[in-house]
Amino acid sequence: MEQIAYVNGSFVPMSEAKVSVLDRGFLFADGIYEVAAVLDGKLIDNASHLARLERSVGEIQLELPETTARIQEIQKELVARNNLVNGMVYLEVTRGADTGRDFAFPKGVKPTLIMFTSVKDIIGAPSAKSGIGVITVPDLRWTRRDIKSVALLAQVLAKQAAAEAGAGEAWMIEDGKVTEGGSSSAFILTQDDVLVTRQNGSAILPGCTRKAVVALAEERQLRVEERAFSIEEALAAKEAFITSATVFVQAVVTIDGKKVANGKPGPMTGRLREIYVDFAEATAV
Ligand code: PDD
């Protein structure tokens, strides 16, 4: 059966899911997106994703065309219509299509809202067991990375370089420190068992999974330091991992081909992954 997408109020077969060539998401990357995981047909940590969506659109003075409560209803209906069990819901809101290509905001134009789903076995993914390699690349992005903008060209290039190198993610480097992954937050566990991840601010996206993992770790009396770290520190660490809605918690076993510790997923990473999955299942809607 053909996938069903949501476009501006209608559920339509993917082949009919279209927006205008004048859509500002297409012309200017003038839009915001969110990705929420789906486990057993339910949305994971969705309140956190919708809160970040509201914040992101606010930062670019874009009004959501629907309330977040309605957006969640649409997400759920789309999951149901696609019989999606495990995977994710992508949603994007743009400043809509004007009659031409003026940079400044158009007046009286309704924002575009689209959604689609994709299938992914997040729990059973082979890389969940094996871990991944990462490569390092310079962080070429703009300086408001806290906004989940659809302007992802720097990440496209970073992740393409990773794919060509046989790596699972690219860690972006600025001023000698890791900002984050192309589509994930970066963590290390130091030799004295401190969990380190970069502090939120305009240099990184405030990851929803990052936030949950930090809270879950602190609840378990693990020491967490929110600060930048270098690749040298990561290579000297006990463990390294990434977090995101589409991988949850995933071990990083090599950086630029060099092993982190013994080059195998670490026990703390495995434990945090289990704890996150339990949290995800318990709070799914
Ligand atoms: N990306 N940092 C960046 C740059 C990201 O693009 C993402 C998510 C994250 C992790 O955020 P979260 O835990 O809320 O998923 C961090 C999504 C999954 C994507 O672009 O597909």
Describe this structure in words.
This protein is an alpha+beta fold. The protein folds into two domains: 4-119, Aminotransferase class 4, branched-chain amino acid transferase, N-terminal domain (D-amino Acid Aminotransferase, Chain A, domain 1, 2-Layer Sandwich), CATH 3.30.470.10; 126-283, D-amino Acid Aminotransferase, subunit A, domain 2 (D-amino Acid Aminotransferase, Chain A, domain 2), CATH 3.20.10.10. It has helices spanning 24-28, 46-59, 68-81, 126-130, 153-164, 208-219, 231-235, 267-283; strands spanning 4-7, 10-13, 31-39, 42-43, 87-94, 112-119, 132-138, 169-174, 177-181, 185-189, 194-197, 223-226, 239-244, 248-255, 258-259. Strands 7, 8, 9, 10, 11, 12, 13, 14 and 15 form a nine-stranded mixed beta sheet that branches. A six-stranded antiparallel beta sheet has the order 2-1-6-5-3-4. α6 (208-219) packs across α8. The model has no long low-confidence stretch (mean pLDDT 98). The site of N-(5'-phosphopyridoxyl)-D-alanine (PDD) has 14 residues, from α6 and β13.
Radius of gyration, whole Å: 19 Å
- Using the 3D structure, state the CATH architecture of the largest domain: Alpha-Beta Barrel
The figure for the number of domains is 2
Ligand roster: N-(5'-phosphopyridoxyl)-D-alanine
Percent in helix: 25-40%
- CATH top level assignment of the largest domain: Alpha Beta
The computed structural class is alpha+beta
Low-confidence stretches: none
Structure annotation, total helices: 8
- How does the major sheet shape up? 9 strands, mixed
Distance between the termini: 25 Å
CATH superfamily of the largest domain: D-amino Acid Aminotransferase, subunit A, domain 2
Task: Provide the residue-averaged pLDDT.
Answer: 98
Please tell me what the overall shape is. Answer: globular
CATH fold call of the largest domain: D-amino Acid Aminotransferase, Chain A, domain 2
Strand proportion, as a percent range, falls in 25-35%
Q: What's the count of strands?
A: 15
Secondary-structure element order, as H and E?
A: EEHEEHHEEHEHEEEEHEHEEEH
